[in-house]
Design goal:
The complex is a heterodimer.
Chain A: H1 2-14, E1 32-36, E2 40-43, H2 44-62, E3 70-75, H3 79-93, E4 103-110, H4 119-136, E5 140-144, H5 169-183, H6 196-207, H7 225-233, H8 238-259, E6 264-266, H9 271-283, H10 290-294, E7 297-298, E8 305-307, H11 315-324, H12 345-359, H13 363-372, H14 407-417, H15 439-443, H16 448-454, H17 457-462, H18 466-470, H19 476-483, H20 493-513, H21 519-526
Parallel strand pairs in A: 3-4, 3-6, 4-5, 6-8
Antiparallel strand pairs in A: 1-2, 7-8
Helix pairs in contact in A: 3-11, 8-19, 9-12, 9-13
Chain B: E1 5-12, E2 24-29, H1 38-48, E3 58-59, E4 62-63, E5 67-71, E6 74-75, E7 90-96
Parallel strand pairs in B: 1-7
Antiparallel strand pairs in B: 1-2, 3-4, 5-6, 5-7
The complex binds zinc ion (ZN) (2 copies).
Chain lengths: 527, 101
Amino acid sequence: MCQVDEEYNDQLEKRTVPTVSQRCVKCKEGIAVLIIRAGDAFCRGCFKEYFVHKFRAMLGKNRVIFPGEKVLLAMSGGAASSSMMSQVQEGLSRDAPKKLRFIPGIIYIDEGGACGQSLEERERVIAQLEPIFRATGYPFHIVHLEQIFDLPSSVLEAVSSAPERPEGSYKAAVDQFLHNSKVKNSCLPREGNQGPTVCDAQVQISCLAIKDTPNGTPALVVRHGQDLERLFASVNTLTAKEDMLQTLRQHLIVHTARTKGYSKVMMGDSCSRLAVKLLSNISLGRGASLATDTGFSDPRYGDVVILRPMRDYSSKEIAFYNKMFRVSSVFIPGLDTKALDKASIQLLTESFVTKLQADFPSTVSTIYRTSEKLHTACPAHDSDSEPTAKCLLCVCALDTKVEEASAFHATLVSEKLSQKRVPESPLVWSAVTADVTGQCCSSGGEREGGCGTGGGGCCTSSTTPVTPDMKSLLCYSCRLTIKDMTAVDSLPRYIVSEAERRKRRYQMKQEISEFLLDEEEDEEETS
Amino acid sequence: MAAPIALHLEFGGGAELLFGGVKDHQVTLPSQSQPWDMKRLLVWIRANMLKERPELFVQGHTVRPGILVLINDADWELMGELTYELQDQDNVVFISTLHGG
Ligand SMILES: [Zn+2]
Ligand SMILES: [Zn+2]
């Protein structure tokens, strides 16, 4: 036996260059350059074709982007979103009838302020990204995360979308578009031929925050820098920080889309990324929103629909495509850079999935296929009832109005029981708000004494007028994130004031409810 | 004795942060009794190039899961991975696909 092994090893050692180069599974001729999916070897040419086709097929299959529609590409600078941008460019430059027919724009959210980057570092990143964006000829918007402190509370409202367009109208819209473009071809923006006025205006907008540097001082000037620092400093765990950042980033993107007239936003989530997101979201208590969080089309904001056209690509495919076809991307350190695997639920899940994937190459695709089967169970929608309540932060349907027998209620009950009773609050002891007044005490069960009597430190935060009201407006998962914050008043104004507005509305409704006629009675009378 | 060989190494996707933020490296592996394969290259990188946190780049005898390796623009999975015997002027690329780099 040993001898056999040795001989085998010898053979391997002698093989300096792979003697038989593997052939491509598709054309059977080209020499394979990479292995994708579970062991398929592709040559360079076939891989490019496969990659490009997949993007168009994804958009073609779903038929949600109408010709002439404005679509905002959410760029992080990373591999997946850069690859997405290259596919959009590719699709728009193609000849009819395979040409994509929407009007793209680019948004980049500079979140360096939340990740502890210096202004110089952030400026360097933007200086790297700008030429890449400019080269596309599309309008681009560079938005700093600090701008959340200037957002209006209307961001948090899900605007009801235009009524569903009937089946078959897609085809009609395409035909109409083709007809129109024949008539006034010159007016339509074409790839690399954008009207200079539009382009220049956008560039100027993005430059407003960046001033010239005559004397070497930081050129990037951002307002609310300290507010943002304070906000993220008040979040304890990396898990909640990542969740908060994701929520705030989303709000900024949706707001920009609305104010600039984009009705779709494309995000570059790959299937590797979505597999991690799916599992970590379950751990974060976002099970009820999995379909919206990971699906191709995410309608939670109503008038602005979020799309994930890269969800069929693995991160390996994306990295290889970018490398082979020179798609430039910029690595920007984030909250999780150089952090330990165990630093957050999201990182731990990523490490778990990637390690499993290394030994079992179909791990990601299996998780991903599971996500495809998920659908949001929509409560029977009747036009009379008011729209379903949405979470204040993530704008998903509230998952907290469930039957008594649910795990959620069990959690609330046990939380209530393990809590010290606060005498002055019997009036607000409803199932949902019960845990709020003694929030900090519940987390440190044994150390109740110091907490209750001292009235210092931890309890002061729960006396902030906003806190007790906020919780009932949040989904289960966002409650956990907010619970992780030491100072809820460091949240941006638009969130706090929208919370107050919703609470007031709710109270007002309660007050007048006894004077209102039942809807049923009402109907009987009118009929 | 194998002669010293010159390699071009490239790090991307955030992996470069572990190498002082430098993406491209021109290195010469010294002459040694056994031929240079990928497994020995990783040991050498760990000993001579990694500036910090080696566990974010090498785990066990191989690269950390989530870091892709290309040898002369091809997937190292097609080249025998750790057993690939390096040639003078080879081009080896490491790309992190992990979220934080
Ligand atoms: Zn081929
Ligand atoms: Zn929520």
